[in-house]
Amino acid sequence: MLKNKPLRSIAVNRTFVSKQIKLEILTVCDAPISQPDNLIDSIQLSLLGYDEYEGWCRQLETRLQQIAVQYHTGKQILQGDITANITVDQCINMVV
After folding, report:
1. Would you give the DSSP letter of residue 75?
2. C-alpha 46, offset from chain centre
3. 21-26 long-range contacts, Cβ below 8 Å, gap at least 24?
4. For the purposes of burial, counting CB atoms within 10 Å of the CB of 91, is it exposed (0-12), middle (13-18) or buried (19 or more)?
5. pLDDT at 4 (0 to 100)
6. Full-model pTM
7. How many helices (H) and strands (E) does the chain have?
């Protein structure tokens, strides 16, 4: 009898979810999304224009919370967690 084993390792899941988060970050600010993997983890959201539109931060919070629920990460993103001064990597760590 075969034992139930996870289909993916944690590292693969983190990589996949990280790519999803980068895609959401770019989508919210209407940036090109053809290669979200090229978004540098250390870049602050302000460099993508998040400091000019507070609504983008709220929108991103909602989308990150949806990702956390979808992938059962156990994390919760609250209103005010996302600001223009945080980095892409900090967004990823909030979810994964």
Report:
1. -
2. 15
3. 21/64, 21/67, 21/88, 21/91, 21/92, 21/95, 21/96, 22/88, 22/92, 24/60, 24/63, 24/64, 24/67, 25/60, 25/88, 25/91
4. buried
5. 45
6. 0.84
7. 3, 0
